[in-house]
Design brief:
about 160 residues, mainly alpha, 3-stranded antiparallel sheet, 7 helices, 3 strands, globular, disordered N terminus
Length: about 160
């Protein structure tokens, strides 16, 4: 028996998968990654690198561990994702006073210009991703996702 998209959807429904929040969040995440890749493939930036640009731009001199915490990832992952940004000169390191052992990160002038271009592209990607929703639905979805992700909670 040949399988098609309709069969796949009915199989998901029969298995109860479309009633599981985790399954639907995974499918939505897959869709978000696909849209992001389509918009950013020519810019050679991953979604996590975009997030690093955003955090560093808003907090020049941010420490390595603080950046990892804000990105919700490990320090090792931050090291890996920053390496090409440092090599390209988009991100620069700076020493913190009074503890010169601490390394902070800032965007170079070129990195800030690149981030301005990235912000335009992320707005287009977000529009494509949420385009199936009305403005009110998009607002409600964002509110609910923030609640589920617990991004507005105090640590």
């Amino acid at each position: 028996m040949a399988s098609n998209e309709s069969d796949s959807e009915s199989t998901d429904n029969a298995a109860g998968l479309n009633d599981l929040a985790g399954h639907l969040l995974r499918l939505a995440s897959n869709q978000a990654q696909l849209v992001f890749r389509e918009h950013f493939k020519a810019l050679n930036v991953s979604s996590l690198q975009y997030c690093a640009f955003a955090v560093i731009s808003g907090q020049p001199g941010i420490f390595h561990g603080d950046l990892a915490g804000q990105l919700g990832t490990s320090k090792t992952v931050v090291t890996t994702l920053l390496k090409p940004l440092l090599e390209a000169g988009d991100v620069v390191t700076c020493k913190s006073r009074p503890d010169l052992r601490q390394t902070g990160y800032s965007l170079s002038p070129e990195g800030q210009r690149k981030f301005e271009r990235l912000k335009i592209e992320i707005a287009k990607a977000e529009s494509d991703l949420l385009g199936v929703l009305s403005p009110q639905e998009a607002f409600e979805l964002m509110s609910l996702l923030k609640k589920v992700a617990r991004v507005d909670e105090e640590p």
